[in-house]
Amino acid sequence: MTGDGPFDLVYVQGWVSNLDYAWESPRLSRVLHRLGSFCRLIRIDKRGTGLSDRGTGFPTLEQRMQDVRAVLDAVGSQKTVLFGSSEGGLMCMLFAASYPERTTALILHGAYARGLWSSDYPWGRTREELEEELLAIEREWGRPADLSRAAPSLVDNMVEREWFAAYLRNSASPADAVALWRWSVEIDACDILPAIRVPTLITQRTGDRWVKPEEGRYLASRIPGATYVELPGDDHIIWGADADRLMDEIRRFLASAQPVATESTLLTVLHLEIQDPSAPENSSFSGRMKDWQDDAFRQLRAADGEAVDLQDFGLVVVFRQPSQAIACAFELRDRLNHIGLNVRAAVHIGECERHHGLYAGPVLRLAAGLAGCAEPGDIIASRTVRDLVIGANLSFDPRGQLDLPGIPGPWPYFSVRPIS
């Protein structure tokens, strides 16, 4: 931590980082001291990078989000500003949508919602461009860093190039660097942007060669009430040219940002149905149903789920994390199969409102609609869920798409199963 300002700010850097080696750069250390001059600056090395444990496996976005929450708990921070640059913005967006009660404000610089090209996100990389980038990382690892895209203003500065190359070497192994780059491009957070309800500042350099201005504008157009500031310059990194201007914009925004009261948050909904709950043919049926309800309550408590609707032949449960919902669906399906009951289930994530203890929102309708598309024994997940659990030990097989009246779509869905 650095500084002792009146509020906390967590800075989450993109790709890889090293908390100690960052101070070896006069430019980066100056930026960190500027941030620490008006807040208590909290920095982290994400799982598998820098000073954090290595070889921890492929992370998921929500695992990294929970790591940040653990850091905040450890330093006694109840509420914080989240500042994410580049890929670090993805995790900050998910945190702000999932835990608005712990988020004072959200700041995104050079951030993006989706890494890969699609017809509705034409600024992302193609698969071919991604493979070229991965080959370049492998080929150039350890050499003086090529800053032509990350910081064109420093491309002729051999001291900065040598430091940045050493910084990368101290931040991750070559194999981890490649894996984390691929992971950062595979994630898609487009669908969660409307669920971000905290004061948000988006800053973007006009000539950024990694993240295009259109991507910053896309974020601003889909995050309710977001402030968008386009800054002159070509450097993607926050410690490049004109870093003071960026720090000034952040400080100005935080001085005027007002808290927003909201009763909505990003939640994952599990909708589970028992198939063919026909009249019992023998007296064991009622006993099996009691066993099912007892199992359901035990499993929900273990998985931090909250029942929205618990019926004789199904349930609707909300979770803070999609992986919790998927794991709970697998567990309940297996337990119910063991007592002779077949189920189908669906998992979807989206904004959910809560008024006087009652939940509402399209996410509930979509989860129910997706469950109706499942075959007996199936666990169905929406594309939004799939894109947010990249890195989990799960396989997603395309099954179709759902259209519901009154809800913009279509919504592609997948059969999900654990990878053995």
Output the keywords:
420 residues; Rossmann fold; Alpha-Beta Plaits; alpha/beta; six-stranded parallel sheet
Structural class: alpha/beta
Shape: globular
Q: Beta-sheet strand percentage?
A: 15-25%
What would the average pLDDT be, to the nearest integer? Answer: 90
CATH fold field value of the largest domain: Rossmann fold
Integer count of domains: 2
How many β-strand runs? 14
Assign a percent range to the helix content: 25-40%
Distance between the termini: 41 Å
The low-pLDDT segments are none
CATH architecture of the largest domain, please? 3-Layer(aba) Sandwich
CATH top level class name of the largest domain: Alpha Beta
What radius of gyration results from the CA coordinates?
23 Å
Description of the molecule:
This protein is of the alpha/beta class. It has two domains: 8-256, Rossmann fold (3-Layer(aba) Sandwich), CATH 3.40.50.1820; 264-418, Alpha-Beta Plaits (2-Layer Sandwich), CATH 3.30.70. The protein has helices spanning 26-36, 61-74, 88-98, 127-140, 158-169, 174-186, 213-222, 243-256, 284-302, 322-338, 362-372, 383-388; strands spanning 8-12, 40-43, 80-85, 103-109, 200-205, 227-231, 264-274, 306-311, 314-319, 343-355, 358-360, 379-382, 394-404, 407-418. Helix 1 links the parallel strand 1 and strand 2 (40-43). Helix 2 (61-74) crosses helix 3 (88-98), helix 4 (127-140) packs antiparallel against helix 6 and helix 9 (284-302) runs antiparallel to helix 10. The mean pLDDT is 90.
Q: What is the element layout, followed by pairings?
A:
Blueprint: E1 8-12, H1 26-36, E2 40-43, H2 61-74, E3 80-85, H3 88-98, E4 103-109, H4 127-140, H5 158-169, H6 174-186, E5 200-205, H7 213-222, E6 227-231, H8 243-256, E7 264-274, H9 284-302, E8 306-311, E9 314-319, H10 322-338, E10 343-355, E11 358-360, H11 362-372, E12 379-382, H12 383-388, E13 394-404, E14 407-418
Parallel strand pairs: 1-2, 1-3, 3-4, 4-5, 5-6, 10-12
Antiparallel strand pairs: 7-9, 7-10, 8-9, 10-11, 12-14, 13-14
Helix pairs in contact: 2-3, 4-6, 9-10
